[in-house]
Amino acid sequence: MKFKPKSGTFILFIFCLFFFGLIASIVCMNFIVMNKFVGDLIEWVSFIFSIIAIIYISYLILRVSKRKIILYEDRIFVLEDVGSKDVKLQYELEIFFSDIQEILIKVDTRNSLNKSMRYVHTPMPYIVFVLSNGLEKRVNVYYYSKNQVIEVIDYIIKKKKVLSSIFSNKSGRELIENIENK
After folding, report:
1. Range list of β-strands (E), the chain
2. Structural contact between residues 83 and 63, judged by C-beta atoms closer than 8 angstroms
3. Tens-place pLDDT, residues 62-82
4. Are 90 and 81 contacting, i.e. CB atoms less than 8 angstroms apart?
5. CB 139 within 8 A of CB 126
6. ∠ CA 176-85-52, rounded to 5°
7. 92, 78 in Cβ contact below 8 A?
């Protein structure tokens, strides 16, 4: 199963990207068609700004479109975000269900490697997997809907229970409710 972001924040973000991309394209086309590259400084500045905006919006769409949680029969795989280490929330991650000891949800401003980030000040939810070797692996779920997060957690719990009948963990819904009550 593959999960792509579907939360309201994510949809609003995509709508804003589309809207600003459309405005930048209109300004760019207006400059090319109407003025035929003859104009004053303001027209050139608006043209250059439009080109930069189109490139930046294309880059943001690429970053957002690569965000994915992939659940296999025996493991979970998360793709790495595109971007520099200052803005990368999620690093590539592969966890075998057999290695999981506990599943938690934590909210903080760190990335998936649990390191501080320079430009991120918004607390974001992470599914935290406590592994049998004592390490914690984190999956950023900020752009995913509550139902998607619950579905991912419950799928992993179900697969883990097949591997180990003594495994017990709070359900996805219970973990989400604990976050909302804090």
Report:
1. 2-3, 69-71, 75-78, 93-96, 100-108, 124-131, 136-140
2. yes
3. 777 778 888 998 999 998 887
4. yes
5. yes
6. 105
7. yes
Helix (H, G, I), strand (E, B) or coil at 110: coil
Which residues have C-beta within 8 Å of that of residue 182, sequence separation ≥ 6? 107
Count other C-beta atoms under 10 Å from residue 134's C-beta. Answer: 7
State residue 116's pLDDT score: 85
Both structure tokens of 92 = 């590539």
The token pair at 52 is: 């930069």
Measured CA to CA, the distance from residue 136 to residue 154 in angstroms comes to 19
**Residue with tokens 């495994």, as numbered in its chain:** 167
Note the pLDDT tens digit of each residue in 105-123: 999 888 888 888 877 788 8
- Alpha-carbon distance of 107 to 180, in angstroms, equals 11
User: Which two tokens mark 139?
Assistant: 């999956």
Total residues found in the chain within this entry:
182
Q: Is the pLDDT of residue 130 over 90?
A: yes
Q: Tell me if residue 140 falls in helix, strand or coil.
A: strand
Residues 130 and 136 sit within 8 Å (Cβ to Cβ): yes
Tokens of 166: 């003594």
